[in-house]
Each structure stands twice: as structure tokens, then as C-alpha cells.
Specification:
By secondary structure, the chain is of the alpha/beta class. The protein has two domains: 219 residues, TIM Barrel (Alpha-Beta Barrel); 79 residues, DNA polymerase, domain 1. It is 38% helix and 8% strand. The chain contains 15 helices and eight strands. The strands form two sheets. Strands 1-2-3-4-5-6 form a six-stranded parallel β-sheet. It has a two-stranded parallel ribbon with strand order 7-8. Helix 2 packs across helix 3, helix 4 crosses helix 6 and helix 7 packs across helix 8. About 5% of the residues have low confidence.
Amino acid sequence: MAQQLSLRQKLEILADAAKYDASCASSGTAKKNSVGGKGVGSTEGMGICHAYAPDGRCISLLKILLTNHCIFDCHYCINRKSSNVARARFTPQEVADLTLSFYRRNYIEGLFLSSGIVKSANHTMDQLIEAARILREEHDFRGYIHLKTIPEADAELIHEAGLYADRVSINVELPTDSGLTRLAPDKNARQIEGAMDRTKSRILQAKDERKRFRHAPRFAPAGQSTQMIVGADGASDVDIMGRASALYGNFGLRRVYYSAFSPIPDASAVLPLKRPPLIREHRLYQSDWLMRFYGYAPGEVAQAAEADGNLPLDIDPKLAWALKFRERFPVDVNRASREELLRVPGLGTKAVAKILAARRHRTLRLDDLARLTQSIAKVRPFLVAADWRPTRLTDRADLRSLLAPRQEQLELF
């Protein structure tokens, strides 16, 4: 007879099992609150503990699996069918009770719920939906809910999930079809894309209905996201960036998340023995940011890569691109367009906005830039100001080594 686990033991197992899923940010959700004494939870205001990891991930959600039992045998997954790990399973009611308990203690702002596939995709999806339904309908929970949906489940179930969740996501898992076929033989790339496409259509339809009918039901108002594992197969950073760009364009995703592959116990022989450096994951997020907010085309970001198709690890992709296209620099900070300024290493979107606002009133000097930017040393080789011209600095052969972050040995004590 199987040992009965306490709720605490289940939480330890299933919270730890959920840590490999990176896509848990709560940005973009529709604002809801419990003003007026009705309902529990909110996605804004007092009583919400927003905590972020150093890499920017939101950790203010109760992030758990419904179960880590799984009928699939994906090589890279710690919860795969053949894995020798402790197993546990929540009931939908237990998930709802935990979420409310954590929220009332001011630990979280909502729930991120994923699951291994137990019995069947439809059965598992039905259980995920039931947990969300209990929260929304029985407790009038107005906090954030992110449901990880299962592409193999019926379209009607994924549709129902979107009616309860602020955000839904379907993981593409790996950047190439060949990698998915080799490492996740139970998954099908076209099936995943089909589910994402249907979700996109339903989100757009719901937005249109809300414009015409104020009380039309919301459907995943925070959109959909996905995740790709980095370093489990031979895909280069250029492959990953190309795939991410296609996902954004084809399915209107809010975010593509990247998760560095982590070796697991009793791993398959087809997997790498070592994890990729975490800085590689960070560089991919930076490249993603360049495409989404800085006006870089995917092909331009790919030009920042090294000969092996991977982004350099010692410098960020924006600096790498600028060093390869030095003929585009320096730009005149007092005359350059917003698009040109956004290409300057060391200038973020906020700094560019401040520069554009300030130069309406006066001609900017180097001291002005120092007050508007975080790293004047990084900016200087690429800008012309009223009292500054980099002359030969922009073309120095050792400019990369001058601008690369210094490597420091951290003290243990």
C-alpha cells in the first residue's frame, strides 16, 4: 500500500519539481481587485509580495505542479516516466486551499500551475481547470492564475482553461523539430503549434468581443507564453533566436522564456553531461529584448553571434553587434534619431527617452550624458556630444577588451 503523504510533503516535492519551468511572470494581466469587500486577491495594490530573482523572473506566485507523475518519457525531464524520483499528487481542492492560504499570508499574488500528464492529457487538463474553477467560482479569487496547458488535450478544454486563467502557456520545449523528435518522442511540434494558434485566435476573438460587449467573458487577458530549453540539443543561439522570432510573429506570444538545461539524475545517454553556462541563458534574454524593444530584426541580432552561431559570453549582444558594425558609429547625441540612439551600447530605452527630452532644451555635453546613463565609459566610444568626440577610440583594435566586464573572484567570507 502506498504511503500517504502529508500536504507539506506534497508541497515540498511538487514545488521543487516545478522549478524547471521559467515562464511564471505575471506581467500583462488585467487589473482586478477585491475593493468593496467581495472576492479574494488582486493583481495590484497592497497585500501583494512582488519578489524577483536576479535574472528577472517573478517569484511572487505559488509555483507548483498538480502532479509529477507522467506517462510521457521526455529525456530531459526530471519527471519523465522512467525517472526514479519521489512522486506526489495534489487534488484540485488542495491546490485551491494552498493558494488561498499563501495569499492570505501575503506570500504570493497568485498561482502558477503546471502538471505532469497522468492517465491522459484530457484527464490532467480537466484537473488543472477544476483547481482554477474552485478558486474563481467558489472563492471569488481575483488574483493571478497562470495555467500550463497541454497541447494534446482537446481544444474545448484549453478554451475552458483560458476562461479562468490570466495567462496560459504551452511549452515548445526545444528550438528545433529534430531536437523535439529525438528528446521528446511523445510530443509533436505541429500539434503544439496548432494548440498555440487556436489559443491566439481565441484571445483575439475575446478582445474583439470585449470591445463590442462590455460583459463578454475574458479569455487569457495576459496572453500566452512558451518556454524553450537551452543546451539540451545542438541548437545554436541563432537557431533559438530564429525560432523565438517565428513564435512571436506567428502566435502573438507575450513572452518566450529560456531555461538552461540542467543535468538530471539517471539521465539518458543522449543528453549532455554538463549544463550550459547560465550566462548563455542571460544572453538569449538580452537578444530577445533587442528584438522586442530596440528595433533589431532577428537577422541583425544573429549578426552579433560568433562563427559557431552562439552569442559571445563575455559581452552583451548589443555591444557585440556595435563592434561588428563600427561604421555606424559614432552617432551625434544631439542629432541622432531615437532608432540610432537605441543602437548605442549602454543606452537603454529610458536613457534614450531622457536624452530626447533633454536635448529639446539644451545642447547635451558629456557630463549631461553621465547623469542620464549608468555607464558613461561604455557609451563614450559610440557617441559624439557638444564637447566630446571619440576620434580613434571607436576603431581601436582592443575596444572589446576595454568594454568587456571585468572578471572578479568573489570572496567567500
